Amino acid sequence: MSLEWMSDAPRPFSKVLVANRGEIAVRVLQASKEAGLSCVAVFSESDSSSLHVELADESVLLEGGSLDMTYLNGNAIIEAARSTGADAIHPGYGFLSERADFARAVESAGIRWIGPSAHAIETMGDKISARSLMIESGVPVIPGGQIPVEEGADHLGVLASAAAKVGYPLLIKASAGGGGKGMRSVSVPKNLRGEFEAAAREASAAFGDGTVYIERLLNRARHVEIQVLCDSHGGAVHLNERDCSLQRRYQKVIEEAPSPAVTPGIREAMGIAAVTAARSVGYVGAGTVEFLLASNGEFYFLEMNTRIQVEHPVTEMTTGIDLVQKQFEVAAGLPLGISQQEVSQNGHSIEARVYAEDPSRGFLPSIGELVVWRPPSGPGIRVDSGVREGDSVTIEFDPMLAKLIVHAPDRQSAIRRLDNALSSFVVLGVRTNIDFLRNALTHDSFQSGSIDTDFLDSTDPSELRGPDPDRPTLVAVAASAQRLGMGSRQHIAGTESVDDHTGHQGDPFRTLGRTFP
Asked: Rounded to whole angstroms, how far apart are CA atoms 121 and 126?
């Protein structure tokens, strides 16, 4: 796919600056090249040798030692675009992607913003205003009320009144953000004040706004989201649903499409609601409308993410539609070129987020050098990553190493394919969550499709973090790792070196309960 279709008119943009890093920067840079566009990377000093810098046609150093001075420095990023002649900016996700003031500044500088309007970002980014708009538009919202409570206000009376109207259990949620930050569940009245203060503090630190609101907590609910695409000509379609119910502390872990809990009737109704939500704010671009799906089949608006999502690949795998290319096309002023009737649902796709973290120690980040990095490959396997062998994992950024995505004809085949791919994912140098992912994926509740959003947080940790089931071993990899002669405890996707700093070549590798000399 190339944007050469603009041959009869001036091209709206020809060089894209990617205002991000890591796997999403790599994803957008690759898409830019496929579209026939030049591309520019920005990077902090610690990212100077990163993969996204290597892939770009040009790169610009963002000077400074903090995020505020680099990837969150909108002025510096706009100046980088000016200095390189970039006439469009793609924000990826995270960082500045949902900052309305940045979107406005980009457009004011005469640079094309590859994303929705600042108005849409602002409206949907404030959870209270978004809920109000959904009520006006007839989109179902979670029962209860949206009662804003500002940090530092005399909140005791307001809290008590809000809780009485909503009922327990309830959720306290940040108005300005998402991703589980500034969110607390409250099951009994005595915990209300403490959880409110904790939520407000966290929201203020994460988003610069401590305003929170209260809504009813739905038990046994699933997290289901609908991908939407809208153009500037009034066209709008949904690309079916993704199920993101496997999450830990409101952070998504494994996502899949389609949802095992969504019937054709629910899919149609939820899709219509998502398109209605997008149209209500004049949305243009790729976005995601998130819902909670109750056990009785009723669903409720949760929020709208005004950007590309981490889990967008499962939609691409099941529909055959490249979402980043569609972002380019829509930003260039083209119509979608696809009707709702033309959106397909082909097979099943599952994505697992591979992190440098230690599940046995409360999922603490694991730092170090990726001495060996061997992602799986094969039919129906896709790996989106921003790292390569030799890169260092630090505490400076999110510890996600890769997204492993598979596609297969049906759900059970996709589960088996993902489990097999995870089993052959070789990482040496840092601890990972790979075995945790395998244990969750092969758990009876996930296999049957009966999980809800509380599954990981309510399941006995020993069921997910204990000894792994036997699986094919990586003898050759273990042997090569021994030859590296490293003097620290290292891991190969669950294979632990027990080198005791003696350099003894006979030290065994314990691999899933089996020992190899």
From this structure: 8
Q: What are phi and psi of 63, to 5 degrees?
A: -75, 140
Higher pLDDT, 461 or 115: 115
Q: In what helix (H) or strand (E) does residue 304 lie, and over which residues does it extend?
A: strand 299-305
Calpha distance 509→256 (Å, rounded): 34
Task: Enumerate the β-bridge partners of residue 407.
Answer: 349
Per-residue pLDDT at 200: 86
Active site residues: 307
| pLDDT tens-digit map of 283-329 | 999 999 999 999 999 999 999 999 999 999 999 999 999 999 999 99
- What average pLDDT does the chain have? 87
Closest listed residue to residue 72, CA positions, set 52, 91, 49, 90: 91
Q: Is 63 exposed, middle or buried (0-12, 13-18, 19+ CB in 10 A)?
A: exposed
Closest by alpha carbon to 28, among 106, 111, 88, 109? 88
Which residues pair with residue 246 across a beta bridge? 254
* pLDDT tens per residue, range 228-247: 999 999 999 999 999 999 99
Alpha carbon distance 150, 10 (integer Å):
49
CA distances from 366 to 46, 189, 376, 396 (A): 17, 38, 21, 12
Residue 150, Ramachandran bin (φ over 0: left; ψ between -120 and 50: alpha; else beta): beta
CA distance 330 to 235: 10
Q: What is the pLDDT of residue 70?
A: 97
CATH of 143-216, picked from 3.30.1490.20, 1.10.290.10, 3.40.50.300, 3.40.910.10, is 3.30.1490.20
Q: What is the DSSP letter of 372?
A: E
What's the CA gap between 466 and 184, in Å, rounded? 28
Render the burial of 47-62: b for 16+ CB within 10 Å, e for the rest.
beebbbbebbebbbeb
Q: Which CATH number fits domain 10-114: 1.10.510.10, 1.10.10.10, 3.40.50.300, 3.40.50.20?
A: 3.40.50.20
Give, in words, the CATH class of 222-464. alpha beta
